[in-house]
């Protein structure tokens, strides 16, 4: 299946575990770091517009359902929403690696995507990605 680039104006959501959420309720840069111990080549996110819903809350509900099958979501975790174009701007300003945000469907998770263009040693890009997030961009990790 060919890679599908995610449109610039669309949005992706990153699940941030509780330890990567600051006291202000916003993600720390650790939420956007690639894990060297897992040899991650990209940051896993989910494409909101894939679900063609009326709003982000409904799309996050769909993503939550898909992720529950493979992750343990926490009430104290959060989903952080980012605009694709802004993410690409951050990466292109700070990296010489090819930048792309592409769909990487997984079984049971059709909106899964990868953000490519930086590596696990990068500290600037995760920091700048975290700075893009405001409280309006945050959604509960799990609803009980």
Q: What report would you give on this structure?
A:
- The chain has 144 residues and is α+β, with helices and mostly antiparallel strands.
- 22% of the residues lie in helices and 22% in strands.
- It has helices at residues 56-67, 84-94, 124-131; strands at residues 4-5, 11-16, 43-47, 78-83, 100-103, 112-116, 138-140.
- It has a seven-stranded antiparallel beta sheet.
- The chain is globular and about 40 Å long.
- The model has no long low-confidence stretch (mean pLDDT 93).
Offer a few descriptive terms:
3 helices, alpha+beta, 144 residues, single chain
Distance between the termini: 37 Å
Structural class, by secondary structure, is: alpha+beta
SSE succession: EEEHEHEEHE
* Main sheet makeup: 7 strands, antiparallel
Helix content percent band: 10-25%
User: Care to count the β-strands?
Assistant: 7
* Beta-strand residue percentage: 15-25%
Radius of gyration equals 14 Å
Low-pLDDT windows of residues: none
Number of helices: 3
Mean pLDDT score: 93
The side-by-side strand order for the widest beta sheet comes to 1-5-6-3-2-4-7
Shape field: globular
What is the secondary structure topology, with strand pairs?
Elements: E1 4-5, E2 11-16, E3 43-47, H1 56-67, E4 78-83, H2 84-94, E5 100-103, E6 112-116, H3 124-131, E7 138-140
Antiparallel strand pairs: 1-5, 2-3, 2-4, 3-6, 4-7, 5-6
Helix pairs in contact: 2-3
């Amino acid at each position: 299946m060919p890679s599908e680039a995610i449109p610039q104006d669309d949005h992706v959501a990153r699940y941030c575990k509780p330890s990567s959420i600051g006291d202000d309720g916003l993600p720390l840069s650790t939420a956007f770091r690639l894990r060297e111990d897992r040899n991650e080549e990209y940051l896993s996110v989910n494409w909101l517009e894939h679900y063609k819903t009326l709003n982000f809350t409904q799309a996050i509900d769909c993503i939550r359902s898909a992720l529950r099958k493979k992750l343990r979501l926490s009430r104290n975790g959060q989903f952080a929403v980012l605009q694709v174009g802004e993410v690409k701007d951050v990466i292109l300003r700070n990296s010489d690696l090819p930048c792309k945000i592409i769909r990487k469907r997984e079984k049971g998770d059709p909106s899964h995507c990868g953000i490519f263009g930086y590596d696990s040693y990068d500290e600037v890009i995760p920091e700048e990605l975290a700075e893009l997030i405001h409280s309006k961009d945050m959604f509960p990790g799990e609803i009980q």
